[in-house]
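Action item from last meeting closed. Structure (274 res):
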């Protein structure tokens, strides 16, 4: 495995180092991932190692090696799958898992207040009753999305630079990535935009097209549950980008109301597997 160094210092300078960060009880996070179209085998390690290098987070990984969209992650076979966790990171790609009982079993703990983080294809999963306009999954995520264009660079612009999550993170342009659409053109009324992505493409006849969509946001589900989401994160190079890992880390900490110097670790160089 080729190893790369990721410089993660700059984005965290606004938080002082603290011995208390090592003394606090770790945030217990469950990462659910697997399914179609992504290198989840490597991304499970990139995400967990990258986030834990930045914050006091311990992980349980529920990785499903199945490569289709119809296979339910086995973690959900246990009706108490969520117990013992402070936050769930949904990164699965299971758009054809439509069983209402399964979806309700996933939604229940979140309706009851369990925080969530959505990464990329987690947004396209569990298309149950009412899809695409009135599905409970999109009420949970805060953003209606069901497709994307070609893989091309995305210009990311933070539209709320003063938000505690995005403060100090600079705009950047990704490598070739998928920009997810916004079906309704806006977020749920319970959600708040943090960043937009702009992607320029050309049709076969040479006409230029510019898509501009929300790509980072927060949501309040069922009146109480904190949800952080980003549609970014298709390719390994994006997932391993220090800016992406910083964004996801800060979003996760925000979701559990612990975005502070007690949980952020001192900035340093981090060794990750590519």
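Sequence:
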């Amino acid at each position: 495995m080729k190893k790369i160094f990721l410089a993660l210092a700059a984005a965290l300078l606004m938080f002082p180092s603290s011995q208390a960060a090592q003394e606090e009880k770790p945030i217990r996070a469950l990462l659910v991932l697997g399914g179609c179209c992504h290198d989840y085998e490597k991304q499970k390690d990139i995400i967990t190692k990258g986030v834990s290098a930045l914050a006091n987070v311990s992980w349980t990984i529920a990785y499903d090696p199945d490569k289709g969209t119809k296979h339910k992650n086995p973690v959900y076979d246990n009706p108490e799958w969520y117990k013992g966790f402070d936050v769930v990171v949904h990164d699965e790609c299971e758009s054809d898992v439509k069983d209402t009982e399964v979806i309700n079993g996933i939604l229940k703990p979140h309706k009851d207040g369990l925080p969530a983080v959505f990464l990329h294809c987690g947004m396209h999963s569990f298309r149950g009753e009412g899809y695409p306009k009135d599905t409970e999954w999109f009420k949970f995520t805060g953003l209606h999305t069901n497709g994307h264009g070609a893989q091309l660079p995305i210009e990311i612009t933070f539209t709320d630079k003063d938000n505690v999550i995005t403060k100090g993170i600079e705009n950047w342009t990704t490598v070739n990535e998928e920009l997810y659409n916004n079906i309704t053109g806006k977020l749920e009324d319970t959600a708040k935009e943090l960043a937009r992505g702009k992607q320029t493409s050309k049709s076969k006849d040479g006409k230029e097209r510019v898509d501009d969509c929300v790509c980072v946001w927060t949501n309040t589900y069922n009146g109480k549950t904190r949800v952080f989401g980003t549609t970014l994160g298709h390719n390994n190079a994006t997932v391993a980008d220090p800016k992406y890992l910083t964004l996801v880390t800060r979003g996760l900490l925000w979701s559990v109301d612990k975005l502070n110097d007690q949980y952020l670790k001192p900035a340093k160089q981090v060794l990750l597997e590519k």
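Note appended to the action item: DSSP finds six helices and eleven strands in the chain.
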